[in-house]
Design brief:
2 helices; elongated
Length: 59
């Protein structure tokens, strides 16, 4: 698997995981978990974008 594809897949997975954590934190009233989830979402978005940039530069 190319590194660009791997970064996109990992970024998507982190983003989804972050959404779940943020929702769980909000549901149970845990602001730390909610913040951690939001941070993980942002990290996933950055990694996904990195994969997209790598794909463009490989062409």
């Amino acid at each position: 698997m190319k590194s660009s594809t791997k970064n996109q897949a990992t970024g998507t997975a982190k983003s989804i995981s972050g959404k779940v954590k943020a929702a769980a934190g909000k549901l149970v009233g845990n602001p730390r978990l909610e913040a951690r989830g939001q941070a993980e979402q942002a990290e996933g978005a950055v990694q996904k974008k990195l994969g997209q940039v790598q794909r463009v530069l490989d062409k």
